[in-house]
Amino acid sequence: MEPSGDGGRYRTHRSTTQRESMSDDPKLADLRKSYEHGSLDDHEAADSPLNQFAAWLQEALAKGLPEPNAMTVATVGADGRPSTRVVLIKGYDARGIVWYTNYASRKGRELGAHPFAALQFHWVELERVVRIEGRVEKVSAEESDAYFASRPLSHRIGAWASRQSEPIPGRGALVARAAEYGLRFGLNPPRPPHWGGYRLVPDYWEFWQGRSSRLHDRITYRLQDDGSWQKARLSP
Predict the structure, then answer these.
(1) Count of Cβ atoms closer than 10 Å to residue 199 Cβ
(2) Which of 1, 19, 85, 182 is the least crowded, having the fewest Cβ atoms under 10 Å away?
(3) At what angle do helices 153-161 and 171-185 cross, to 10 degrees?
(4) Catalytic pick from 109, 214, 218, 233?
(5) So where are the chain's domains?
(6) Is the distance from CB of 128 to CB of 137 less than 8 angstroms?
(7) What is the mean pLDDT of residues 36-49?
(8) Pairing label, strands 195-209, 96-102
(9) Alpha-helical regions (H) of the chain
(10) Higher-confidence residue: 208 or 18?
(11) What superfamily would CATH give domain 35-151+193-233?
């Protein structure tokens, strides 16, 4: 606060830094997009969420979208605090959605405490979002070994060099560790014991298709006790 010059009354004000920062911001409130490219009618949605997902993913791949395999993974820590990060899907079938990572990373530790997660794919160019929720389990050692062996050599060395989510003094330390493991293992690094795959076993799917006037399509599938899927439409 500062004197107002009118009888000793005070007025509040933003700092110069705050005013300058706000004056440089784009008009975020005015940014909007009209979704016009697609629809998801009830009769068009597959009876199986896996089939619906496969159809949308294959379309994203066929259209050459940038990183159509990128998905956000949301986990919850022991303190109840959520966190998200982007990973790449590496497989899917009736058992679930698979990705690979460092088990000692933050997401690995959080999944160890609470083995449930949510995934989200956002295919901007198709105006589509897929959300998936469920329990998470590690894939078998054999599956992790097979995928690890298929990775480029530099990626396999990187899995040894990176203590994912841990502080490091600088990038030089990371490069030095990569060089160290490169010399140690040569062309055949084994899979690190702290690295492997996770599989999310879905019990909930949601398919979102942008529509005009914000009257978007939202089709959900919820797993029932008998193993069937209950399909429903949600209000946008």
Answers:
(1) 21
(2) 1
(3) 120
(4) 214
(5) 35-151+193-233
(6) no
(7) 87
(8) antiparallel
(9) 16-24, 49-62, 106-113, 141-150, 153-161, 171-185
(10) 208
(11) Electron Transport, Fmn-binding Protein; Chain A (2.30.110.10)
